[in-house]
Design goal:
It is found in: Endoplasmic reticulum membrane. This protein is mainly alpha-helical. The strands form five sheets. It has a three-stranded antiparallel β-sheet with strand order 7-9-8, covered by helices on one side. The longest helix is centred in the last third of the chain and has 30 residues. It starts with a helix and ends with a helix.
Length: 541
C-alpha cells in the first residue's frame, strides 16, 4: 500500500485537479444560480453557496488561487478539456489500486487463484490474477471520468427547466457525441478483454479458441472508426522510388483490408504482452513503459494554438491525442501501483487478465486515435519476441508450456531453458527430458535452417548429435528472455552431478534479467520516436 507521505501528497493533488477546474468554470459561466424549481437539497446548496454576490464559492476560490493562477487554469482547461480530470484520476488510481490489491490478494489466494514462483526456491503459493482488481479500478476511473469531461457548465441549454426538455434522439447541439461514442466503445472493448482474460485465468483456454475473441471485441471500435470517417488508405514510401512507380500513386487504398489490419492489431496487442512473460514484473513493466511512451507522444500534439498557422498540431489531432491521454493516463497510474506488488520479489501475480486488458487499451488508443502504426512502433520488442517465438508457436520446434529460463539456487542466477529434439534412437530418446505435451521428434530441415540462422545471430544456443553439426540435439527456448541470457554469454551446460553448476558465463539474477528487458523496452521506445519523427520524414517525403 502507498505510504502515508505519498498518500498525503497524491490525494490532495488529485482532488484539486478534479474539483478546481469545474468550480472555476462554473463560477466563470455565470449560470450557476437558477431561481426556478429545484430539488430541495440542490436549492439549499444553491442558496447557501451561490446566491449571494460575491458568492461563497467566489470567496472560497479567491482564498485558494490567485487571479493569475485562475486565468491559467481556465485557459488550460479550455484548451485541453478533461486533461486535469485525467491527471487527477490517474493519481487516485495509483492509490486505489494499491489498496484494492492489498485487500483482495488473500481472497484470491483462498479461492484457489494461486501459483508457485518457478524461479524461486520458496514453496509458498502466491496470489494470482490480481490483474482483475487492477482492471476493475481502471474501469471505475474511466466511468468516473465521463461527467468530468462531458458534463460542462459551458454547454448550451444545460440549465433549461423540465418544460424545455426535447428528448431528441440526435442529442444536444454542440455536444461532442462522436467523441463520447468513441469513449464508450472503448469501455465496451476493455470489458470484453477483461472477461476474456479472467476466463483464461480460470479455464486456461487453448490458443486456437481465444485468438479470435479480440477480433470480435474490436467490432465496436471499428464501427466507431467507420462512423467517424476513418481513412482506409496508406501512404506509399517515397524511398525506394520504384514503389510509387510500380503502384502508380503515392496513396494506396486498402478498403476492407485496413479494417482487417486493425482487428488483427487488437489481437496482436492483446496477446503480445502475454507472450513476453515469465519473470517478476516483466508484464507490468513493459506495459508501463509503453503507456508512458504513448503519453509522451500525445503531449507532443498538445498545442493551445492548434489549428492556427505555425502550430505543430491541428484541432483534429489535438482531440485525438486528448482522447488517447484520457485512456492512457489512468492506465499509467494503475500499472505503477501494480508494479510495486509484482516487481521482484513478486508478492502477487498479474495473470492473463492484466495482459489482455492492457493490450486492448493500447490497440484501442491506436485505432480511435488514428495512429495505429505509431502504436506498433512502441511494440518493437514484442514484435521481435513474437517473430523469435514463431518456430515454437507454429510447431517447427517443440513448444513446452513454460519457456522461462531456469533458476540456479546456489548462485541465485538464471540460465537458458532447453528444448530437446529426438535422435531416432528410441532408447536414447527415452532418456531425454521432454517438457512439451507431444513426443519428441527429430529437427526438420526447415527447423534446422531457422535455428542455425538464429544461432549465427547469437540468439539461441544449439547442441548437436554429430560433429558435423547436421543433427540438432537441443536448442534454448525461443523467447527474448532466453535470448538476452545467450547474448550476455550465459551458456547451458549439461551436467551429471547435482552439485555441478549447470551453466557457464556471467551470473544474471531474475532482477538483473528484468532490468535488461526494461532497458530493451526503453530502447525500443526511443527507436520508435526516431522512426516516427525523423526517419518517417525521409521515407515519406
Amino acid at each position: 500500500m502507498p505510504s502515508l507521505a505519498i498518500s498525503a501528497l497524491v490525494l490532495p493533488t488529485a482532488a484539486l485537479a478534479l474539483v478546481l477546474p469545474p468550480l472555476l468554470q462554473l463560477e466563470a459561466s455565470g449560470h450557476y444560480y437558477t431561481s426556478g424549481p429545484l430539488w430541495p437539497p440542490f436549492r439549499w446548496l444553491s442558496e447557501h453557496l451561490l446566491a449571494t454576490q460575491p458568492s461563497r464559492l467566489t470567496r472560497l476560490l479567491d482564498s485558494m488561487v490567485s487571479s493569475k493562477q485562475r486565468e491559467a487554469i481556465l485557459y488550460c482547461d479550455d484548451a485541453f478539456p478533461g486533461l486535469f480530470a485525467a491527471v487527477g484520476l490517474s493519481l487516485i488510481g495509483y492509490c486505489l489500486t494499491s489498496v484494492a490489491i492489498a485487500k483482495t490478494k488473500d481472497v484470491f489466494l483462498a479461492r484457489g487463484f494461486k501459483g508457485r514462483d518457478l524461479l524461486k526456491n520458496n514453496p509458498d503459493q502466491i496470489p494470482e490474477s490480481l490483474g482483475l482488481p487492477t482492471a476493475a479500478v481502471y474501469m471505475a476511473l474511466l466511468f468516473l471520468f465521463i461527467p468530468f469531461r462531458y458534463f460542462s457548465s459551458r454547454l448550451q441549454g444545460i440549465y433549461k427547466t423540465g418544460d424545455d426538455w426535447e428528448g431528441r434522439m440526435d442529442g444536444r447541439g454542440g455536444f461532442p457525441h462522436h467523441e463520447l461514442a468513441s469513449f464508450l466503445s472503448a469501455l465496451l472493448s476493455f470489458l470484453s478483454a477483461i472477461v476474456l482474460g479472467f476466463l483464461d485465468d480460470v479455464f486456461d483456454i487453448r490458443w486456437r479458441y481465444k485468438l479470435p475473441i479480440p477480433i470480435i471485441s474490436s467490432i465496436p471500435l471499428l464501427m466507431v472508426y467507420y462512423a467517424g470517417g476513418g481513412g482506409t488508405s496508406v501512404v506509399v514510401p517515397g524511398w525506394p522510388g520504384v514503389l510509387r512507380q510500380w503502384i502508380g500513386s503515392s496513396i494506396l487504398e486498402l478498403g476492407p483490408l485496413y479494417y482487417l489490419y486493425m482487428s488483427l492489431l487488437s489481437t496482436f496487442c492483446t496477446n503480445s504482452i502475454n507472450i513476453l512473460a515469465g519473470i517478476n514484473g516483466v508484464e507490468v513493466g513493459q506495459a508501463l513503459i509503453i503507456s508512458v511512451s504513448l503519453c509522451l507522444n500525445d503531449v507532443l500534439y498538445l498545442d493551445s494554438r492548434a489549428g492556427v498557422a505555425g502550430s505543430r498540431s491541428s484541432k483534429e489531432l489535438l482531440r485525438r491525442h486528448l482522447l488517447s491521454l484520457y485512456l492512457v493516463l489512468p492506465l499509467t497510474g494503475v500499472c505503477l501501483a501494480l508494479l510495486s506488488w509484482n516487481r521482484y520479489p513478486a508478492r502477487v501475480f498479474v495473470g492473463d487478465t492484466f495482459c489482455y486488458f492492457a493490450g486492448m487499451v493500447f490497440s484501442t488508443v491506436g485505432i480511435l486515435g488514428h495512429f495505429s502504426k505509431t502504436v506498433l512502433l512502441f511494440f518493437v520488442p514484442q514484435i521481435f519476441n513474437f517473430l523469435l517465438s514463431c518456430p515454437q508457436l507454429f510447431g517447427l520446434v517443440p513448444n513446452p508450456r513454460h519457456r522461462v529460463p531456469r533458476f540456479h539456487a546456489p548462485t541465485n542466477s538464471l540460465y537458458p531453458s532447453i528444448q530437446y529434439f529426438a535422435s531416432g534412437d528410441k532408447a536414447q530418446d527415452d532418456r531425454l527430458p521432454n517438457t512439451s505435451t507431444k513426443p519428441l521428434r527429430p529437427a526438420s530441415v526447415v527447423s534446422t535452417l531457422i535455428l542455425k540462422l538464429l544461432s549465427f545471430l547469437r540468439l539461441v544456443q544449439l547442441e548437436f548429435y554429430d560433429d558435423h553439426k547436421r543433427r540438432i540435439k537441443s536448442t534454448t527456448n525461443l523467447t527474448i528472455l532466453n535470448a538476452i541470457l545467450v547474448l550476455r554469454g550465459v551458456r547451458h551446460r549439461p551436467t551429471t552431478h547435482p552439485d555441478e553448476k549447470p551453466f557457464t558465463g556471467p551470473h544474471i539474477s531474475e532482477y538483473g534479467l528484468w532490468l535488461h528487458t526494461m532497458l530493451i523496452q526503453v530502447a525500443g521506445s526511443c527507436l520508435a520516436f526516431a522512426i516516427r519523427y525523423w526517419l518517417a520524414s525521409v521515407v515519406f517525403p
